[in-house]
Structures are given as C-alpha cells and as structure tokens.
TrEMBL record, chains A, B:
InterPro entries: HTH-GbsR_regulator, WH-like_DNA-bd_sf, WH_DNA-bd_sf. The lineage of its organism: Bacteria, Bacillati, Actinomycetota, Actinomycetes, Streptosporangiales. This is MarR family transcriptional regulator. Keywords: DNA-binding, Transcription, Transcription regulation. SUPFAM superfamilies: Winged helix' DNA-binding domain. It comes from the Bacteria. Residues 165-177 have a biased composition (Low complexity). The keyword Transcription regulation applies. Residues 164-185 are annotated as: Disordered.
Amino acid sequence: MTEHAHEPEHQRDDAQAWAVERMAVLLTEQGIPRMMARVFAFALVDDADRYTASELAEGIRVSQAAISGAVRPLVHMGLLDRVREPGARSDHYRLYDEDVWSAIMLQRGPLLERWEQATAEAMSQLPEGPGRRRLNETREFMAYMRTELPNLVKRWQEHRAQLHTTQTGAEATPATPEAEDRETH
Amino acid sequence: MTEHAHEPEHQRDDAQAWAVERMAVLLTEQGIPRMMARVFAFALVDDADRYTASELAEGIRVSQAAISGAVRPLVHMGLLDRVREPGARSDHYRLYDEDVWSAIMLQRGPLLERWEQATAEAMSQLPEGPGRRRLNETREFMAYMRTELPNLVKRWQEHRAQLHTTQTGAEATPATPEAEDRETH
DNA sequence: CACTGTTTTCATGAATTTGTGAAACAATAT
DNA sequence: ATATTGTTTCACAAATTCATGAAAACAGTG
C-alpha cells in the first residue's frame, strides 16, 4: 500500500510526527483549526519543500478529503502557496519562500484594515463616551500597526540576514550528509 | 453603572449591541471563543470602566454562568483585570487601563516564549535538513519578536501620546476629542 | 474520446464546544 | 448565627465542527 521508501528511519518519523504535533498545538491554541494547524506544521517541519495533497495526507496520516478542506483556507490566508506545474496533474503546495514568517506577518495587513473599518463603523453609530473613545483608540492602534507592520518585517529580515551571515560565515558545516535532495521532481 | 437608567435610549442600546457583535466577530475570527469575544467586546464598547459579572451578563444578555466561564480565560490571558474591592462581595472586571492594546501586546510575550521552547525542543529531536532549518528560523523569529515587542509597544505609546496631544493639547477642546473623524473618506 | 491519477464535494457519524438552569459556595451585613 | 447578595460549579441539551469514505469532477495523456 503506502510504500515507505525505507523503514529503518522509523525513529525519525516518530520524532517528526511529535514535532509536528507540538507545533500544531501551538497553532490551535492561537485559534487555527486543528487540521489546518497540522498541515502547516507538517509543511514546516518536513524536509520537502513542496507537497502534493496526497503527500500531505500520507505525512499526517489523514484522509485526502481533510487535506483538501484544510489547504484551501491556508492558501487563502497566504500561509501556503499553491503552485501548479504545467504537464503535471497534481497541485503542489509549499510554504511561502524561505522566509515564512515575513509572509505571515505581512498577511495580517488586511485583517488590520478590517479592524479599522469595523471600529470606524461602530463609532459612527455610538454616542460620545468612554466606550466610543476606547473604540477610537482601537482604531488608532490597528491603523498604527498596519503602517508599522512593513517596518517591523523589514527589521526582522535585516536581523535574519545578519543571523544568516554569521551562521554561514563559518560555513563548511553541512554537518549531516543526510541532506539528500528530495526536490528531484 | 451607566446602563439602563430607564429605557430612554433604546436606539443606543441597539447600536451598542450591534457594535459589540461586530467587534466580537472579528475576535472570533481570530480564534477567540465566541463568549470570550463578546465579553471583551462589550467591555470595550460599553461606557462603564468596570463591571461585575452580573453587569456583564445583563449587558450581553446571557447567563451568568456563561460569563463565569468566559471571564476566567480572559483574565488568564490578561485581557481583563479582576479587581476586588475590600468590603464588597462582588468582583469587578475591567479592561486593562486606558491603553488596552499595549497590555494585550505585552501579553504575547509568554506565548512567544512557548514557541521558542517548543521549536527548540522539536529541533533537538530532528536530524539536519530543511525542516529543521525552518524550525530554527521559526525559533529565531519568535525570539526576535519577543525582544522587539516592548519596543513596538513603546513606539505605539509615543504615537498614541502624540495623537492625544494634537487632539486635546493645542485646541483646548477636549469636548469632542475625535472631531477629526470623517467617515466619508 | 476513453483512461488515469488527483483533487474536491457531499452526506454521515462522531467528537467537541456552548450555553443554560439549578444547586453549591463565598463573603458580608444585620 | 443567619439572611442576603453575588459568583462559581455541575450535568445536560443543543449547536457546531471534524474527519471520513465514497463518488463526482478535473486535467492531462495516449
């Protein structure tokens, strides 16, 4: 049935599954539905850089239907990218780029806009008073965050680049030749 | 408090309920359970600055039991403050201070720490490879955000103070603090 | 135009989550 | 003490969400 390339690495699969579950828990605690969390966590933790729906299903050991349901909102939220290769009948999903978290952060812009809109609308219906004032402050906060988000991301990317250079500066540490290419599609 | 003196502003209560619901929707979309979202939204929108459990129940028109269940995690998350006055048998809940959103932001620190921990642990169990590298990046991102959070909040507070002074400072017109608001933009 | 491998939709059953009324539980004031 | 006021816990009913298998819908290939 499911052909495991090599079973000797059972240990590794366990560790991986555990890691995936751990990440998924954090995500669900932040309100992301379980299945979406698992898919994202798996894509984060697993070594491949893209996955077909069935690879995801196999990797997490759930039905393909569940994958289908989870992948759509993930793509919509911008946490997964769907790439379709010409001449292939399978869609491929991949985490956004190398820098996943920048993508995720930037994705929050529209959400903040919705806050701005909603608070503004609500304010327009409410009389003066502390409540309305708090709403206004909320609106201001969301607006501020929206303008600051790109800067924050930029700073993160700079920081990230710095970490990278210091890490790879003393390169010659591939360490584990296990880094076999799985992207030989 | 400023609740039903009689039933004069029925209109207003409707508008308020609508505003509360609107805010609550945004919160639930971010993963906060419905009841918690309503309580928080109500505390944000309503004019009072503190509420007993029963006032919350009345305001949202829901059983006190539901309030009790919703308030606990809110307090735990640091979104509500529970203040007990001596010589009163009722707990009072209030939004954190004037600057709600600073409090909320700062509250995210521990969560980021958990991410750092979880990713580190997961990494320690995984072999070298792209997946592990992505986990590491996640860890770095969370760490960065944790260190940057206070700065971000500080900048927001400065920005906020500026908004405040421009609004109330020169013009000596605190009567209508947000007269600048034109919704037809 | 059938054939094949894949993804999506749909109805179903299961599990989880919600909100409620009623009772138990403080803490105070009389 | 005991009555009073207010909060929390408990068991349960209702509503919602989940994940699955089976089958339909797609897209590419010979």
